[in-house]
Amino acid sequence: MHNDVLGDIHIASRTLSKCEAIIGSILDKKALKRPGILAAHRLDAMDVEATKALIRQTKSQIVLNAGSAFLNMSVLRACIDVGVAYIDTAIHEDPTKVCETPPWYGNYEWTHREECERKGVTAVLGAGFDPGVVNAYAALAANAYFDRVDSIDIIDVNAGSHGRYFATNFDPEINFREFTGTVWSWQESQWTANKMFEVKRTDELPMVGSQTTYLTGHDEVHSLSANLDVPDIRFWMGFGEHYINVFTVLNNLGLLSEKPVVTAEGLEVVPLKVVKAVLPDPMSLAPNYKGKTFIGDLVKGVRDGVETELLVYNISDHEEAFAETNSQAISYTAGVPAIAAAMLIAKGDWDCHHMANVEELPPVPFIALLETLGLPTRVRDAKGDRAFDPGEFRQDRRQSARAGA
Amino acid sequence: MHNDVLGDIHIASRTLSKCEAIIGSILDKKALKRPGILAAHRLDAMDVEATKALIRQTKSQIVLNAGSAFLNMSVLRACIDVGVAYIDTAIHEDPTKVCETPPWYGNYEWTHREECERKGVTAVLGAGFDPGVVNAYAALAANAYFDRVDSIDIIDVNAGSHGRYFATNFDPEINFREFTGTVWSWQESQWTANKMFEVKRTDELPMVGSQTTYLTGHDEVHSLSANLDVPDIRFWMGFGEHYINVFTVLNNLGLLSEKPVVTAEGLEVVPLKVVKAVLPDPMSLAPNYKGKTFIGDLVKGVRDGVETELLVYNISDHEEAFAETNSQAISYTAGVPAIAAAMLIAKGDWDCHHMANVEELPPVPFIALLETLGLPTRVRDAKGDRAFDPGEFRQDRRQSARAGA
What is the CATH number of the domain that holds A271? Predict the structure, then answer.
């Protein structure tokens, strides 16, 4: 839909038919803005040399890594070597490890910071919705709304329903990994460890009403804690009682383990892979998904000497997302911001020539662009609940604070 | 403990070390009543010719099949061919089928009835506790207590605790099969189909207190309905809410299926076998098992022209069972009655020279013998709750009813 800005578009996957299905859907919807190249390629993105060859062959200038979390390091390596821009939407994971020590970016991506800087390679990390847009919301609040931020609570609620007994909204292997390890949060300016489902909160949220969410370990806490001077940064994810019950049973029985067990017949099997095999394919849920998602930042701090609370958020609708893209709102909110990031790099706004998490880049152009891409932002504070207005956030309060000091 | 009656004892299994462990435990406890042969043998009891050879080699006269439910047909075949007595404790199952159409015995065991009769082979089917002792309780009530029986409700409650998050008390593969198919019961003199956990009752039971049990498909309903003229025969099993929750989650997800699934990596796996691999080994539960089991028959009918209710039951204690046999009460109650059946065949009381379910054999010698083997019976009726007294049940009321007619 944005090849007027992005130019030629090449889609690559281990499974060529997946790329071709996406291209078919785009052509069916007559979504290309102007005639141009839209091509499918077979690629194992763990193979750095093959990835470099494909980048060169297609003359790509921006690589959007929307693959599994296990690919980041190989795709980033290829981009640095060739000297093209890199974007991803989630933190790197080692398939053999669950929940490493914080800050997670420090274990993988940030070890390439200096090299990106030196070679002038733009690498935008975590440019989905969460991480991604919520990082921009945090930067917006810290830079252009508050004089001092005391806490950022990122709240992610899927208030929709897929109508199945139980399913994960994306690959169960990746999904469950978020909840089986230690929950790391940044509290009182230090890392705090909790267990999953140990700490919860209930908020009255716009559009989706009263929602209970649970303290969860998540990518953005690991960069925001390093990049913003805020003592409390937490991530909260909404779960229904039914989800928690099923998760708890499977986890307590050991069925979510990535470590192999041996059956009585001597077959070595990873239980989590069997659970994945019996669960519905997340792709199959989209056509019947109903309801809305809420993702936003509840930020507390001081503005003009007054204790203030700001909620910056997006509401997305599963059925509307499916009508536009054949995907439900969870995929939609994760995928569209990465396209916005690519467009901002193409236009120059975000072509920073170093490695950056989203909160290190100008938030207003990103949020304003997302308004036009189907992801509108709203804000709620003492003045009420209203659509995001870039004019409200034009002043860099950090500069005015420094000027006043 | 009863080789004075049973003579030489040979134990056979695919895994020789299991037999040797049993023999070691017997010798440790100095439990042999008199010097005699107690020997271990390796045998695949699916191999009829090997089984026949072992019977002949050991000069066995009584074969007690305490193997898995998949072995009945091959062991029975061997016994008929050699002409020795056969005992089992549960109905035959085909590993590829779950919950066949009733009556279950009609699909397998009873197809050999005529041959046993013709060749004079004693074959006692289902001689554990349930099926087994509860069939004898039903016969006792029908033959020697009531003039007319209207209903028999067999109630099985394990009020003990193993202290683990979740475990099955015997092989999960066999255990879950009892609950994943249709629940068949005999009501108003016909087969009635229900789903598991669809129908429940709560009773105030001796020793174990108020207990909720669920209508369950079980072997004895299939023989009692054919052998006794009683319109309502039902089996009820006790489950805690936690057990039902875990079972429901696993079952709804498809993790209790015996049909293979294929993982994303192309590995073909039977989910139930993976669940079995992650659950505690049932054998490992025994040392820490605490509490009691209740198994009994609640029988309603008419006696001397009056509507009457009789409860015939046994209470067993997990810790006492473990002290005597290194097994918990569920194994104890299933295993000891089969020994009693073997002793009654050896003595002649039950050496009937045809195929019989337990309710077709004299109940009083069986129940009286179990008194001396650690499984005492109690009765409760309008006259109160008391120990079983054989003298109370000496008269065959069917004969007196016929004499009076």
Answer: 3.30.360.10
- Sequential pLDDT tens for chain A (405 residues): 999 999 999 999 999 999 999 999 999 999 999 999 999 999 999 999 999 999 999 999 999 999 988 999 999 999 999 999 999 999 998 877 766 789 999 999 999 999 999 999 999 999 999 999 999 999 999 999 999 999 999 999 999 999 999 999 888 887 887 777 899 999 999 999 999 999 999 999 999 999 999 999 999 999 999 999 999 999 999 999 999 999 999 999 999 998 999 999 999 999 999 999 999 998 899 999 999 999 999 999 999 999 999 999 999 999 999 999 888 999 999 999 999 999 999 999 999 999 999 999 999 999 999 999 999 999 999 999 999 999 999 777 766 554 443
Nearest CB neighbour to B267, from listed A165, A253, A269:
A269
Q: Under the phi-then-psi rule, with left for phi > 0, alpha for psi from -120 to 50, and beta for the rest, what region is B121?
A: beta
Cβ–Cβ under 8 Å, residues B196 and B214: yes
Which one, of B68, B77, B89, lies nearest residue B116 by Cα?
Answer: B77
- B262, with CB counted inside 10 A (0-12, 13-18, 19+), is exposed
Nearest CA distance, A178 vs chain B (angstrom): 20
β partners of residue B155:
B236, B296
Residues B155, B283 contacting (CB under 8 angstroms): no
Cβ contact, residue pair A273, B257, below 8 Å: no
B71, two tokens: 């072995």
Q: Kindly report the length of chain A.
A: 405
Partner-chain residue, chosen from B165, B246, B254, that has the shortest CB–CB distance to A278: B254
- B264–chain A nearest CA distance, Å: 7
Residue A4, in any domain of the structure? no
Residue among A165, A245, A263 whose CB faces B277 most closely: A263
CB A292 within 8 A of CB A320: no
A219 burial type by CB count under 10 A (0-12 exposed, 13-18 middle, 19+ buried)? buried
| Nearest Cα to Cα of residue A219 among A350, A367, A72 | A72
Check CB contact under 8 Å for A253 and B277: no
Question: Which residues make beta-bridge pairs with B153?
Answer: B234, B298
pTM over 0.80: no
What is the DSSP pairing of strand A148-158 with strand A123-125?
Answer: unpaired
Is some CB atom of chain A closer than 8 A to the CB atom of B32? no
DSSP B113-173: HHHHHHHT--EEE--BTTTBHHHHHHHHHHHHT-SEEEEEEEEEEE--B--SSS--SS-HH
Contacts B258 to A, Cβ<8 Å:
none
H helix intervals, B29-123: 48-58, 72-82, 104-107, 113-119
Q: Are A163 and A291 in contact (CB under 8 A)?
A: no
Closest to B133 in 3D by CA, of B224, B197, B267, B9: B224
Let me know: does A213 contact A155? Beta carbons within 8 Å: yes
Q: Could you give the CA distance from residue B155 to residue B292 in angstroms, rounded to a whole number?
A: 14
Look at residue B341 and tell me if it is in a domain.
no
Of the candidates A262, A263, A274, which has its C-beta nearest B263's C-beta?
A: A274
- Rounded Cα–Cα distance for residues A224 and A233 (Å): 7
B358 part of a folded domain: no
Domain of residue B280, residue span: 133-327+376-404
Smallest Cα distance from B248 to chain A, Å:
10
B276 reaches A (C-beta below 8 A)? yes
Measured CA to CA, the distance from residue B157 to residue B316 in angstroms comes to 11
Measured distance CA(A219)–CA(A15) in Å, rounded: 28
**How many structural domains does chain A have?**
1
The two three-digit tokens of residue B147, written as one number? 């003039």
* Structural domain contains residue B239: yes
Determine which helix (DSSP H) or strand (DSSP E) holds A295, and give its type and residue range: strand A292-303
